Amino acid sequence: MAILNIRQLGDEVLTKKCKPVRLITPRIIQLVDDMFETMYETGGVGLAAPQVGILKRIVVIDCTPEPEPGEEPKEEDSLRFAMINPVIKETEGEQTGYEGCLSYAGMSGVVTRPEKVTVEFTGLDGDIYTLTGEGLLARAICHECDHLDGIMYTQKVIGEVITNEELDRRIEEARTRQDKDQEQ
Ligand code: NI
Fold first, then answer.
1. Structural domains present in the chain
2. How far apart are CA 30 and CA 45, in angstroms?
3. Active-site residue numbers?
4. How far is the CA of 81 from the centre of ligand 1 (A)?
């Protein structure tokens, strides 16, 4: 396993359309392993191959919720996926919220995405899977699939892109305002 270098906004590789994977070779499996390790190391919930300089249609996602305090993580709660050649088949509803990207470290912006997404992909075992995800998982699937077509979330942002410190400040401010409203 290895930690890979994550390309940052402005790098041309992030604007390219990626090629489908024709055969799942040991090299592809190694790449997926390294992508997971790189994603966990940097605290992301998704990573696409072009972000590590590989123009192939591969994404990894892990939106598994933290287990309740004192509880062991359960297999059935796992939202960890390696997707080869993912294709979004269906979308439903809408969600608008802050989103970030490991290729634009430390920044966030508001993006509207579908609330629910159905994606078809090839697994590392070569089988075809269909997955329907909601909320954060739906957002991650859309965000990562966009990377495979050379699209960064910054192209879809409503308003400005802000630093994560500014985002924390705004969340805190909104919370204070809410507390005040409740007092009145
Ligand atoms: Ni991203």
1. 12-183 (3.90.45.10)
2. 19
3. 144
4. 16
The SS3 assignment for 167 reads helix
Q: Are 80 and 64 in contact (CB under 8 A)?
A: yes
pLDDT reading at 22 higher than 80: yes
Q: Per the structure block, which two tokens stand in for 38?
A: 């790189």
Exposure b/e, 11-44, CB count within 10 A at least 16 = b:
eebbeeebeebeebeeebeebbebbbbbbeeeeb
CB contact at 8 A, 21 and 85: yes
**DSSP SS3 for 102:** coil
| Whole-angstrom distance, CA of residue 122 vs CA of residue 22 | 10
> If you measure from the C-alpha of residue 45 to the centroid of ligand 1, how many angstroms do you get, rounded to a whole number?
9
Q: What is the pLDDT of residues 5-21, one digit of tens each?
A: 999 999 999 999 999 99
pLDDT grade, residue 85 (50/70/90)? very high
The C-alpha angle with vertex 165 and arms to 162 and 166, in degrees rounded to 5, equals 45
Ligand 1 center–CA 101 separation, angstroms: 4
Rounded distance between C-alpha atoms, residue 167 and residue 104, angstroms = 15
Bridge partners of residue 117, in order along the sequence = 91, 133
Q: What is the pTM of this model?
A: 0.93
